[in-house]
């Protein structure tokens, strides 16, 4: 079974983001970048399925600038077998990424496609769902447990008020949630090994995909500053403040 995993290069979650002076977006020049955390979980899950003898090959794909090669090398160090970079320099919106991934699904014919549930930079939570629709594949989103048996994936999802388990026939698209697993640390020897693994570079044109943005960002602003809190002497005063000042009780 071949598994395709998409990995996005995003601004590191520990970096305090700055809005550009012209409010057109986030300033990522000189910012530390990292693999989207949900994608790290997706790679880990695919590699565990390979280690368990369920999968035979794990292919990782990233869409974006040449620097995404670093992110792909990290995925190869976790244990993926080979990587594909779809290199493009224009802004990529979820629909464009979903179209690229659909073209790769046609080319690679994986049995399973793992994506993160969302990218922590745009918080769109759209690409997996769009890919499933374009490729006409069943989807199970927000997975916190995945088991494969009899040509199906049993996927436990975290939903409001509990857990839901779905069975989807393969090939299918699964998006990963935080509690699916804890990704391993990448060791230096594995980083060295990853340098020798194959990394193919393609362009959207070679895949026959048009990636022009469909949405225009009007304005990006920082959230308003929070005003300082107040200290109350006891529970009685807290209840009074919640009732009569905050008016939330
Ligand atoms: P989003 O819909 O933007 O929140 O992204 C959801 C998931 O789609 C991410 O966790 C990635 O797995 C995948 N994805 C989005 N953008 C890219 C990209 N440029 N390259 C590779 N994967 C991506």
What does this molecule look like?
By secondary structure, the chain is α/β, with parallel strands linked by helices. The chain has one domain: HUPs (Rossmann fold), CATH 3.40.50. 28% of the residues lie in helices and 27% in strands. It contains 6 helices and 11 strands. It has helices at 37-51, 68-78, 94-108, 127-135, 188-195, 235-245; strands spanning 2-6, 9-11, 33-35, 57-64, 82-87, 112-116, 139-149, 152-159, 162-169, 172-176, 199-202. The chain has a 9-stranded mixed sheet, with helices on both faces. A two-stranded antiparallel ribbon has the order 2-3. Helix 2 crosses helix 5 (188-195) and helix 3 packs across helix 4. The site of adenosine monophosphate has 22 residues, from helix 1, strand 4, helix 3, strand 6 and helix 4.
């Amino acid at each position: 079974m071949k598994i395709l995993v998409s990995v996005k290069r995003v601004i590191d979650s520990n970096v305090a983001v700055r809005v550009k002076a012209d409010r057109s977006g986030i300033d990522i020049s000189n910012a530390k970048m990292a693999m989207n955390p949900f994608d790290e979980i997706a790679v880990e899950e695919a590699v565990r399925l390979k280690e368990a003898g369920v999968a035979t090959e794990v292919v990782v794909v990233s869409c974006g600038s040449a620097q995404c090669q670093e992110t792909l090398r990290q995925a190869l160090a976790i244990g993926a077998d080979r990587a594909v970079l779809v290199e493009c320099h224009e802004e990529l919106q979820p629909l464009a990424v979903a179209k690229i991934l659909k073209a790769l699904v046609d080319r690679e014919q994986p049995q399973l496609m793992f994506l993160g549930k969302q990218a922590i930079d745009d918080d769109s939570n759209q690409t997996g769902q769009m890919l499933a629709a374009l490729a006409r594949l069943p989807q199970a989103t927000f997975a916190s447990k995945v088991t494969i048996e009899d040509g199906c994936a049993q996927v436990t999802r975290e939903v409001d008020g509990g857990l839901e388990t779905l069975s989807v026939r393969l090939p299918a698209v699964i998006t990963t949630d935080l509690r699916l697993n804890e990704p391993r640390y990448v060791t230096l020897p594995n980083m060295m090994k990853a340098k020798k693994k194959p990394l193919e570079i393609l362009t959207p044109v070679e895949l026959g995909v048009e990636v022009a943005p469909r949405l225009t960002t009007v304005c990006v602003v920082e959230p308003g500053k929070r005003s300082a809190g107040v200290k109350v002497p006891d529970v009685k005063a807290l209840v009074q403040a919640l009732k009569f000042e905050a008016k939330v009780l």
